[in-house]
From TrEMBL:
It comes from the Bacteria. InterPro entries: ARM-type_fold (IPR016024), DNA_alkylation (IPR014825). Pfam families: DNA_alkylation. This is DNA-7-methylguanine glycosylase. It comes from Flavobacterium glycines. Signal peptide: none annotated.
Amino acid sequence: MAFINQLENAFQEINNAENALAMAKYMKNHLSFFGIKTTERRQRFKEIWKANKPEVTKNTRAIALELYAKEQRELHYCAIEILIKELKGNYKKEDILLIEKLLTTNSWWDSVDTISKYMLGQYLVEFPDAIDTTIDKFSNSDNMWLNRSAILFQLDYKKKTNFELLKTICIQHQSSKEFFIQKAIGWALREYAKTNSEAVKQFVLVNNLKPLSRKEALKNVSDA
């Protein structure tokens, strides 16, 4: 596709080997990079996206999947940004399969967190009847990243957060030894504390959360 070819060529032209090594190291060498700083990447990406808007809109899912299968992380970021923009308000019921695939492919905190908040969260706003089955499946999965997504998907919900559901998932995973799960529990609770700090404080006080989860949850709660 013209869009993908132009994007890859543009990124190859501005790659920076030194930056790429530093970025890979920051991500524990799980992923490869062109070495392009965020501001420059987004500028070039938006220019090429704008020039190929009809193609991208018509082939959103196929383009995103092809980009996500590439080696360099910057292309994965572009895939996610395309899907967030193009699918909002236009999700199909079967797109949960696409979301699950993205969460479990090239998985690391940077992609999983963005997909959880802006894709899974938005999808479940559009299909609220799918919340129970989806979150039950993800929360009970053997895949740690799906577990994390189940904890984090309500990050942008604020007053619309289903706190009972969040508490249930946090309790389910409160004994996890996984850093990314402990951190996610704390983050999700800290975010909801902006809406209802007292409820979060009481929940933390009566449950045996890991120290990291507890610390993160109460970070901005007074008298905790």
